[in-house]
């Protein structure tokens, strides 16, 4: 079949909206009509050419929601008509990682997914017979896409696609970091570095689990009103205090129980660790630092009881946890609507990248 798609033909070039040939689903695969997709920093990172795993031409996009159209042989967990969210972190429920209680990093299709192909080693997308690569196993910048069955979370069908697509990456990453990776307890003191889309989701996750004090750290005070609406109790403007770490330690009488780095800057990663309370404070890295960058601290920070951790996809096991997060949204426990600041049709998708780079959007969503 043919599908409309925004194709990345090369690094740092605008996406081109073209008709692409799409082969039907093979064994274990599912054809999905994407109804909406978010545009995330990770797409921009790969498009920039800085992503060491990035390759072109490819169809980017990994934050979608849609409907199952057709299934290949052997598929049993979804059927045509089911509403689904694509998972760039799949859940096979069989590999050593899925069977280990401490990780969500299913490795079942990691190698082929990283190379931009389906598990059988080939691509379903092509133009004039020339293959176009998949991306993060999702390629949600195509109106129709093919995914492995293990990379689809089946969700309730009364949830709006234009909102729940954001659960495919940003929402789950932020809220999951709090609820699944760090397991923040009620009454905790939390610091959130960076009040963008990820940081706001960390804040609402911290509020949801009952954190008592939620301190936001940013250099842009225009982020304050929305952060407060989402549950921030205190704000620290990093440009207006002499030393962010000393300031946070004073503000909390010794340091925070948990901190989250949602910027992707190795300097703020260090600050996030060092503002943790001696003896028990734990810091979680969510932001993606530039290729080749390294973090540093004095080992004594860890010797004296602080822990440095990280998370991908919020520690969520997608097929199990994503439907729950959709329920949280439908029950009004989390807010997605106020984070989606812009929507556009596919042929305006390049605007979404411009808005992101200009810092004007929290999240842009493409509606098919
Ligand atoms: N100190 C404090 N805040 C900072 C600093 C700094 N040195 N530098 C930037 N910020 C703030 C910005 O003002 C902005 O509010 O961090 C926030 C980042 O927000 P976004 O640009 O919206 O980024 P977001 O989508 O939240 O993603 C954050 O996670 O997914 C990864 O690759 C992504 O690394 C990025 C991070
Ligand atoms: Zn993402």
In short:
By secondary structure, this protein is α/β, with parallel strands linked by helices.
How many distinct domains? Answer: 2
**Total helical elements:** 12
* Rg: 20 Å
**Given this structure, which CATH class of the largest domain is correct?**
Alpha Beta
Describe the structure.
This protein is an alpha/beta fold and 368 residues long. It folds into 2 domains: 2-170 and 315-367, Quinone Oxidoreductase, Chain A, domain 1 (Alpha-Beta Complex), CATH 3.90.180; 183-310, Rossmann fold (3-Layer(aba) Sandwich). Helix content is 26%, strand content 24%. The strands form 3 sheets. Strands 3, 4, 5, 8, 9, 16 and 17 form a 7-stranded mixed sheet that branches. A 6-stranded parallel sheet has the order 12-11-10-13-14-15, with helices on both faces. A 4-stranded antiparallel sheet has the order 1-2-6-7, with no helix packed on it. Strand 11 (213-218), helix 7 (224-230) and strand 12 (234-237) form a beta-alpha-beta unit. Helix 5 runs parallel beside helix 6 (197-208). The longest helix has 13 residues, at 318-330. The protein is globular and about 60 Å long. The relative contact order is 0.16. It binds adenosine-5-diphosphoribose and zinc ion. Residues 40, 42, 62-63, 169 line the site of zinc ion. This is S-(hydroxymethyl)glutathione dehydrogenase. InterPro entries: ADH-like_C, ADH-like_N, ADH_3, ADH_Zn_CS, ER, GroES-like_sf, NAD(P)-bd_dom_sf.
């Amino acid at each position: 079949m043919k599908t409309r798609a925004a194709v990345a033909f090369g690094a740092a070039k605008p996406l081109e909206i073209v008709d692409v040939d799409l082969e039907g689903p093979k064994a274990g695969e599912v054809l999905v009509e994407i109804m909406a997709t978010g545009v995330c920093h990770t797409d921009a990172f790969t498009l920039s050419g800085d992503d060491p795993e990035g390759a072109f031409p490819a169809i980017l996009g990994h934050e979608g929601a849609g409907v199952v159209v057709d299934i290949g042989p052997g598929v049993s967990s979804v059927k045509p008509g089911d509403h689904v969210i694509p998972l760039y972190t799949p859940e096979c429920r069989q590999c050593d990682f899925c069977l280990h209680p401490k990780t969500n990093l299913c490795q079942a299709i990691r190698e082929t997914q990283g190379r931009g192909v389906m598990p059988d080693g080939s691509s379903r997308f092509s133009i004039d017979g020339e293959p176009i690569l998949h991306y993060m196993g999702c390629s949600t910048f195509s109106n129709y896409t093919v995914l492995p069955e293990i990379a689809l979370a089946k969700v309730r069908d009364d949830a709006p696609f234009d909102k729940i697509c954001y659960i495919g990456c940003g929402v789950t990453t932020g809220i999951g970091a709090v609820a699944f990776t760090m397991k923040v307890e009620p009454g905790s003191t939390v610091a959130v570095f960076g009040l963008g889309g990820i940081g706001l989701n960390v804040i609402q996750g911290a509020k949801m689990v009952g954190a008592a004090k939620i301190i936001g750290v940013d250099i842009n005070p225009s982020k304050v009103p929305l952060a407060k609406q989402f549950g921030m109790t205190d704000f620290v403007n990093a440009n207006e205090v002499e030393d962010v770490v000393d300031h946070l330690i004073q503000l909390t009488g010794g340091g925070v129980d948990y901190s989250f780095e949602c910027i992707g800057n190795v300097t703020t990663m260090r600050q996030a660790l060092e503002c943790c309370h001696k003896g028990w404070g734990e810091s979680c890295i969510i932001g993606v630092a530039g290729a080749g960058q390294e973090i540093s601290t004095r080992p004594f920070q860890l010797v004296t009881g602080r822990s440095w951790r990280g998370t991908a996809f919020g520690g969520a096991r997608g097929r199990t946890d994503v439907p729950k997060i959709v329920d949280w949204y439908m029950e009004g426990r989390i807010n997605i609507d106020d984070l989606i600041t812009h929507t556009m049709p596919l042929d305006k998708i390049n605007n979404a990248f411009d808005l992101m780079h200009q810092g004007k959007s929290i999240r842009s969503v493409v509606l098919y």
